[in-house]
Amino acid sequence: MLAGMSEKTIALVTGANKGIGYEIAAGLGARGWSVGVGARDERRGADAVAKLRAAGADAFAVPLDVTDDESVTAAARLIEERAGRLDVLVNNAGVAGGWPEEPSTLDLGTVRRLVETNVLGVVRVTNTMLPLLRRSAHPRIVNQSSHVGSLTLQTTPGVDLGGISGAYAPTKTFLNAVTVQYAKELSGAGILVNAACPGYVATDLNGFSGTATPEQGAAIAVRLATLPDDGPTGLLFDDDGVVPW
Question: Is 182 in the active site?
């Protein structure tokens, strides 16, 4: 298997069995990449892989629960056995709380659940995959963030980000801060680390109330995954460019 993979870019997209994650996998697969479809539900992951393969993509299933150490370790082992390295990691998996959601009435269990997936899950997956990324000639990490994580936008008069979000929005702010620290640490290793804002996309995360399609929402993550070696690192982007922290 390794001989056949030596010249092909290898990517892993977490939470890729549906929505934006699926479209990111499709976008990278359309470029001739071999794409691991990370999915907590193995059946749904297998269905997504079958659909991607039917469309001509080189996709493979990666059973992956970002909140579980053993699952993430097993995913890294699968990729190492299949390809021997990882070129691009897209940390897309995420969960949302209620919306709107006032901090004064938050259930702490909800906060813990969101932090565990949206932040600690990214750290867990990234750290486990780093040895494989360090073997790549052009390693990239893309973290799926949101405009609601921007403190600047949250505090700018006239900017409507959908009301108060006591749990979800802060997890994206936390993720943004973590992204900056990874970029600083890994700059000397040539690993570009950026965060992506997909926009208000119609997915089950928001009850399909968004105004953009998953394919449109995937575009910025695909662009950051395919940056040249002299591309930016440690920044937050949407389709229009850099988003303020």
Answer: no
